[in-house]
Amino acid sequence: MKTPDAADLLAVSEATWPPAAVTRIGPVTLRDGQGGGKRVSAATVAGEAGDDCLDAAETEMRALEQTPLFMIRPGDAALDARLARRGYALIDPTTIYLCEIARLTDRPLPRVTALTIWEPLQIMREIWTEAGIGPARQAVMERADCARTGILGRWNDSPAGAAYVGVHDRVAMVHALEVLAHHRRQGVAGWMMRAAALWAAAQGAAHVAALVTRDNAPGNALYAALGMTPAGGYHYRILTGEDAA
Q: Considering only CA atoms, which of 169, 163, 245 is closest in space to residue 210?
């Protein structure tokens, strides 16, 4: 299997963390995120979009009660510059991390350190909610049409963290990885990633991927320590002077 590139991994991201609905205005793809965050609400552009098309896209995003927001992917430099001229600010530059699944399946999990569970338990939902991943973002997990599971991290016989993982095109993408503050710096997140990989290997996955904003120092350190490497990235352009999406 070829190593997935950034475009492949963004397709995996959308399949495993999907918007509620997708519509198109010319070359612009619009996403109805229903409050699920930037990734499921951001528009993307394939090809050249004229000012009339961008105006229409902005109108439609406002009709969805979403701030005009575009994802800037590799190859979108011209769009990036054009949106900047239209008053869009750069926000949330994000790195896509990737590794072969064997890198995370080379050792057994300590007993009851990380469990794969679907549907998510109430304690997992509480951990996510405490971290700002509330019902609207949890609904994204529920509507994903792919092999998926939740990960419950445990430490000292107590719930310690929660994550969600989905598999698409033989890539497992880990989302919403959160560890309770008093359980951090004890290796919980690493074991949760390994649990995700072991589960995903049984689903036929060949790679593991994760997304993290560049200013999330603990997240970047975690993935680097696990031997995952950057495979591309993206950022957003959001129209300034309007409420955040």
A: 163
Rounded Cα gap, residues 211 and 113, in angstroms:
23
What whole-number distance in Å separates Cα of residue 231 and Cα of residue 99? 9
Tens-digit pLDDT profile for residues 210-245: 999 999 999 999 999 999 999 999 999 999 887 544
Task: Count CA within 13 A, CB hemisphere, residue 243.
Answer: 6
Give the 3-state secondary structure of residue 212.
strand
Phi-psi region of 214 (alpha: psi -120 to 50; beta: other; left: phi over 0): alpha
Buried b / exposed e across 140-154, counting CB within 10 Å, b at 16+?
Answer: bbeebebbbbbbbbb
Q: Element (H or E) spanning 40, and its range? A: none
Degrees, nearest 5: CA angle 89-61-29: 90
Question: Do residues 203 and 35 make contact, with C-beta atoms less than 8 angstroms apart?
Answer: no
